[in-house]
């Protein structure tokens, strides 16, 4: 309808099932197909998949995946959690900068909800980020356990619920499907 | 684990939420990134999105989307349902042929479950199709209301559940996101 508002959406993919990141990736491909500029930021180190990274390289420059966690020094916080916290904070910082840059049409904050849930970054910082979103930018947040304050601010929330999973049947992760 | 079986999976994206086709599209991109050959067959006419079609064109030849419903003659079955039935049957026929061809690594039967639910094609024909799947082929079925017989045969089933939707808030479908 012509009277409907035109605006960038805040979308959330949550739940315990597969497909949260994968659906974000599909959205990224659709947007890229429409000539939009897409950025995917990964808030959890090692959360990236080879298939995605290879595809992104082929779809460059308007389709970017950035991994975080570089420059971590063991002495700072001698734990795996410390390393994850470092990566998540780098991702948050990059998100702030790139959302403000207004260079992208779609930014995906992959596993940001997971990073909040595990206390790697603060919910308030992410809510502040949502408040700074340029009008036309689409923002996608993925991860388990979306907090109610994020759901409240989102336009579209989908829960991916696992009904049946192959790993429980002794089938190995399959190249191109799982990674 | 090294003892785990290596095989092509049957994956199902169902539920009333967004993201069933979008997650399949993300899977297609990941597989394509791994150098696999991908075919997407659309069982419901008009179910395609412009962003997807444009992206597929850029990712050709190893990333194909085929729409059905061509060659429908009004006199055959003078209704919109007749046209949909015609498209779904064409898609089923093509699926049979291309699954048997063994030319693809991943085939997506988009909205095939919707086509079964509305009686456009028969459940038994789709079950037969699953039985004919070459060992290494990954097959993805999407659509609402996955029948129990399909869930039984699937390796991975995810339900996409709508928690919140923007159209109920008077926000128009957004280019690159919804289509």
UniProtKB/TrEMBL annotation, chains A, B:
GO terms for molecular function: ATP binding; corrinoid adenosyltransferase activity. One of its GO terms (biological process) is cobalamin biosynthetic process. SUPFAM superfamilies: P-loop containing nucleoside triphosphate hydrolases. The keyword Transferase applies. It holds the Pfam family CobA_CobO_BtuR. Signal peptide: none annotated. Keywords: Transferase. Its EC number is 2.5.1.17. This is Cob(I)yrinic acid a,c-diamide adenosyltransferase. It comes from anaerobic digester metagenome. The lineage of its organism: unclassified sequences, metagenomes, ecological metagenomes.
